[in-house]
Amino acid sequence: MANSPQARKRIRRNNRRAEVNGARMSRIRSHVKKVEAACEAGDKDAAAAALKAAQPELARGVARGVMHKNTVARKMSRLTKRVAAL
Q1: Burial class (CB in 10 A: 0-12, 13-18, 19+), 31
Q2: pTM to 2 decimals?
């Protein structure tokens, strides 16, 4: 158990950040799933619109330090390739 005031504060801070980061990751996953669902349905317009909405969310995840930049680059590349193939 944390005994120093700094350690207690760090625990409180980490819990708040984990909540915020978890919500952000959930948002990102939801956007990616919308793109994938539209691709599987074969709806090019919906897939393109979903991709356009997902890209800033993914970029924001990198900017906030929730995801690694190479992971996001790979995901964006694969999603873009799937949408273009429709």
Answers
A1: buried
A2: 0.85
CA diameter of the chain:
58
Q: What is the DSSP string of 19-32?
A: HHHHHHHHHHHHHH
Distance from C-alpha of 36 to C-alpha of 62, rounded to nearest angstrom: 20
- Measured between alpha carbons, how far is 2 from 9 in angstroms, rounded to an integer? 9
> What is the per-residue pLDDT for 1?
74
Residue 45: how many other CB atoms lie within 10 Å: 9
Mean pLDDT of all residues in 62-70? 96
Give the residue among 84, 60, 58 at the shortest CA–CA distance from 72.
58
- Cα–Cα dist 2/5, whole Å: 8
Is residue 63 within a helix (H) or strand (E), and if so which, with residue range?
A: helix 44-63
Residue 20's pLDDT is 96
